[in-house]
Every structure is written in C-alpha cells, then in structure tokens.
C-alpha cells in the first residue's frame, strides 16, 4: 500500500434502508468497476483495504459517511472521487476525497449532528418535551443490543437539541404545521446514543409520541468545535497536511 485516501459519501433516498453490509458490498463492487488500484491484505484470504468509520444505522439517511481506502499506487483524489461516484448507484454519492495523513480518522469523529423530521406534531408540544428533556439531569432509556437489553443515559451525550416548525406537504390541513424538525448534536459515546434513543427519552420525560415514523438524516460528524459545539470537518487536517 503506497497511499491512503479518505472518502466522504452520502446515503440518500431509498438507500437509507440499505444495511451497512450491503452498502460496503456496493462500494467494493464500485471500486472494482472504477478500476481503482485498491490494496489487499496479506494472508490466506486477502481483503480489500477499505475501512469504515462511524456508519449510520439502517433506515437513516446521511450526508456524512466516511471510509478510508488503501491503494497500491498513487491516485489523484479528485479523479478517484469522480470515478468512484460514477460507478455507484444513485443515492450513494461520493462528496469528497482527500489523501490521508497521520492520525486516525475514527478518533476525529467525536460527535454527529442529526436532523429528525416529524409529521403531524404540534410544535408547542415538541418544544415542551425538548425543554423537559434538556432540564432532566439524566434520562435512562433501554435498547436491545447484541448483548441483550441494555439501559443507559440518553441525556448525557446530547450537547444541543432544538426544535423548529416547517410547512411540509400537507400544511394547512392541521391546526399546526405538518412538520416539526428536531436538530441535535450528540457526542459519540459507548454505548452510542442515537436519535431514536433521544425520541424515546422525550416520550419518557414528557409523553411525547409522534404519530408517524421519523425521517432521520445525519448532517455532519467530526471533531466537536469548542466554540460552536457542532461537528467540524474531519478531513480538514488532511487537506492542510496536519495531525490531531
């Protein structure tokens, strides 16, 4: 392996329902179709040197998914971006490629910004639930994991949580706008706190239960900016040739 490249890609539309395993298979096929000289691991069963960091859950759209690919000869990042993007199905879109420098990409992904769209919800009710959640010292929720049912604090990891109303589709048919948008910045912790955990927390502290499934999109993930509290671009250090 002579070069490592870091890739930001989006998962949009119906592909948000695709599992991470299927997305990784689609990306590996696209790498072969694009003629990218991917490096392979040594040993009895060689694997392409492609690693993923902070993948979004199935059912969630994302504008900020990341992977790192090792190649056996030097590649121009922008040419690789165009070739890989054209080889992927619509809905998997390559947004940026940079040459990797020292440091771990995964270590830079300290938090995520999420957008949650809820239809048929009263903005006042949503705002009251958000205020109750933020005022709580802790909000314990439960989730089924590979190790069984696990309880954890959904409040501690939430840095910011805001609510806004937006007309969407059927505006005017209800006494309130048809879409409420929650924006949240969540630190990456173990176990990971996901937007559905926050929604469960809103239900527990305030009885807030939207009538339809949420539409969730990850807008960004990266190092948390000390001034804004929001995720910064994790690839910026690679652009300037720096390190953590």
Write down the oligomeric state.
single chain
What's the CATH architecture name of the largest domain?
2-Layer Sandwich
Count of separate structural domains:
2
**Rg computed from alpha carbons, rounded to a whole number of angstroms:** 20 Å
In angstroms, what separates the terminal alpha carbons? 23 Å
Q: How many separate helices?
A: 6
How much of the polypeptide forms β-strand, as a percent range?
A: 25-35%
Characterize the biggest β-sheet.
Answer: 8 strands, mixed
Tell me the series of helices and strands, N- to C-terminal.
EHEEHEHEHEEEEHEH
* E-strand count: 10
CATH class of the largest domain: Alpha Beta
Low-confidence stretches: 169-174
Mean pLDDT across all residues, rounded?
Answer: 92
Structural class designation: alpha+beta
Overall 3D shape: elongated
Helix fraction by DSSP (H/I, runs of at least 4): 10-25%
Can you tell me the CATH topology of the largest domain? Alpha-Beta Plaits
InterPro entries: DUF2344
Protein name: Radical SAM protein
Region (Disordered): 224-244
Domain DUF2344: 4-195
What labels describe this entry?
Alpha-Beta Plaits, 24% helix, alpha+beta, 244 residues, 2 domains, two-stranded antiparallel ribbon, 6 helices
């Amino acid at each position: 392996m002579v070069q490592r490249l870091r890739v930001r890609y989006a998962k949009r539309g119906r592909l948000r329902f695709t599992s991470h395993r299927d997305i990784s298979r689609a990306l590996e096929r696209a790498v072969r179709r694009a003629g990218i000289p991917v490096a392979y691991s040594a040993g009895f069963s060689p694997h392409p040197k492609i690693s993923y960091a902070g993948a979004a859950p199935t059912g969630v759209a994302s504008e900020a998914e990341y992977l790192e690919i090792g190649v056996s000869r030097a590649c121009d990042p922008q040419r690789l971006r165009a070739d890989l993007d054209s080889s992927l199905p619509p809905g998997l879109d390559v947004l940026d490629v940079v040459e990797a420098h020292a440091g771990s990409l995964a270590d830079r992904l300290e938090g995520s910004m999420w957008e949650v769209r809820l239809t048929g919800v009263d903005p006042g009710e949503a705002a009251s639930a958000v205020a109750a959640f933020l005022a709580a010292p802790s909000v314990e929720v439960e989730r089924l994991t590979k190790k069984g049912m696990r309880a954890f604090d959904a409040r501690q990891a939430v840095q910011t949580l805001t609510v806004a109303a937006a007309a969407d589709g059927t505006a005017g048919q209800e006494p309130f706008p048809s879409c409420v948008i929650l924006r949240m910045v969540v630190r990456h912790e173990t176990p990971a706190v996901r937007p559905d955990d926050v929604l469960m927390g809103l239900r527990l502290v305030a009885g807030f239960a939207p009538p339809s499934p949420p539409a969730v999109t990850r807008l960004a993930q990266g190092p948390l900016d000390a001034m804004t509290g929001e995720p910064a671009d994790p690839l910026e250090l690679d652009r300037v040739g720096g390190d953590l």
